[in-house]
UniProtKB/TrEMBL annotation:
GO molecular function, one term: cysteine-S-conjugate beta-lyase activity
Catalytic activity field: an S-substituted L-cysteine + H2O = a thiol + pyruvate + NH4(+); L-kynurenine + 2-oxoglutarate = kynurenate + L-glutamate + H2O
Organism: Pleurodeles waltl (Iberian ribbed newt)
Protein name: Aminotransferase class I/classII large domain-containing protein
Keywords: Aminotransferase, Pyridoxal phosphate, Transferase
InterPro entries: Aminotransferase_I/II_large, Kynurenine-oxoglutarate_AT, PyrdxlP-dep_Trfase, PyrdxlP-dep_Trfase_major, PyrdxlP-dep_Trfase_small
Similarity remark: Belongs to the class-I pyridoxal-phosphate-dependent aminotransferase family.
Pfam families on file: Aminotran_1_2
Upper taxonomic lineage: Eukaryota, Metazoa, Chordata, Craniata, Vertebrata
Amino acid sequence: PARRLEGTEKNIWVELVSLASKYQTVNLGQGFPDFSPPAALKEAFVRAISEEDSGLNQYTRAFGHPPLVKILAEFFGKLFGRYLDPLSNVLVTVGAYQGLFCAFQALVDEGDEVILIEPFFDCYEPMVQMAGGTPVYIPLRPSPAEGHKPASSADWRLDPEELAAKFTKRTKAIVVNTPNNPLGKVFARDELQVIADLCTRHNVLCFSDEVYEWLVYDGGRHTRIATLPGMWERTLTIGSAGKSFSATGWKVGWVMGPDQLLTHLRTVHQNSVYHCPTAAQDAVAYGFQLELERFGEPDSYFVQLREELQRKRDRLLQCLTAVGMRPIAPEGSYFMLADISDFKAEVPAPEDCDQPYDYFFVKWMMEKKHLAAIPVSAFYAPDHKKHFENFIRFCFVKKEETLDAAEEILRSWR
Ligand code: PMP
Ligand code: GLN
């Protein structure tokens, strides 16, 4: 194998997705909805592939299907408060995943450092490494008020001095993910401002992964770091139609930012993927057209999904609390962490256990209880996993029947 693959061979999803199906679990593991995207989008997809001579079964523009980049530019232009040029400020990618990959490949060089905030969506780490860069880690830490009830993702914060000390001459970029996967933390404007100030002071780029941007609960706000002073020029904002429209299998994502950065991502894209599936892009364009007309209204899918998921969050929160798992209420995203320390006596790891406790516990729970979740140490640096092995992540973007089945398992646990 090529040397750049060294240390990136293992992947939590490859391992756990197969176990979840092997043990026929009720699956609150991998983050995807087990219900359909909105009917209007599915119909648009079918139209795209069915109409004679629509051209939508063939290649489209490499950097994004014209109707999609046009509507994305219009839609997000309003949110960023600036004119976006569809052809130069938007790049469509195969999911947010490929958008992230393009960003790291295009802008991170051998010897560059990239700051990752723990817990982080796992793929950032191998993507930095494959680009030849070095990840530098900083944890979100639960505040001293920890233990007060109810626990919230808002309790987890960065220490500004610790963060400042991570910026060096070699720092190329920092990755921000808000709402965060797996914690569900929504970074407040003042927290983002601290990051932004450091980026501008040290001339550092920001890769802002905002795939859960519509899922902020309890009336909270999603702040786009690219809108803070001096940040547009140095920020790439990454989004996902899979997450926005509950269509993760369509794998349509995008990166938005200034042309002088995006031009390099286009180089990576044209030399690897070249273009993304046309029909899926066409249907997503249609979805955004509808969302633009209904923005913030009760019939907006983004509004409806958020409201539905807030109810599901509250339901899972109650249920986990009832069985003694000590959940942390997420302010956003569709994930919830639960502290499993109290289960160590009941479910002890074997003496010679060579994995963090949460891995052991999750595998045990899949096999014995037929319930799947994700060990949270998967979202930490190799050296830090041992210190964060008492949490597991549940995904609640699931049908009521699935949540019923999970609740049944949890309530009859003991
Ligand atoms: N970023 C985060 C934080 C995610 O949770 C996901 C989920 N897969 C992705 C990126 C990738 O999104 P996509 O499915 O659009 O590739
Ligand atoms: N983002 C989803 C999660 O965190 C899916 C991850 C994946 O499939 N790699 O569960």
